[in-house]
């Protein structure tokens, strides 16, 4: 939130750190597997964490309490992200799916299926109407948030897609891969 940093680790714990003092201000315990991903909500009052225990946990930043445990993935959660409005959470998993969750209720809204390998990165478009996912299947997929349908599959990498990012205008997606390339994709045409 500007004055605190969240970190996840192999000891199954999320920690909140004071930026000025370097002190740990909260230890968030509850996961039973490594914590792979942590993200603040847009308002900064919640943190979502994804873990090898196949769950996403939502934490209250002020109290350190777990507000929701999001269950549904059948394998490790590699990536979590809040929507720009903070009303949804997306999670990418080793089970090859992306799940969309209601951030307030913890209910699964959509399960996005189409990848054939671990989904190791997910990102919302700036408007929040699309999600891009990168996978061990060497592809990037673009999903419609409302329908859960795959809008585009971006193919061209020859190895795992490790990282993806939207341009500020939302018209391009950059993808970084273990094939030692970065590709820039047009979201409307699917062209590289």
TrEMBL record:
Pfam families: WD40. WD repeats lie at residues 1-27, 28-69, 70-111, 112-153, 154-192. PROSITE patterns: WD_REPEATS_1, WD_REPEATS_2, WD_REPEATS_REGION. GO terms for molecular function: ubiquitin binding. Keywords: Cytoplasm, Repeat, WD repeat. The keyword Cytoplasm applies. The keyword Transport does not apply. This is WD40 repeat-like protein. It comes from Entomortierella chlamydospora.
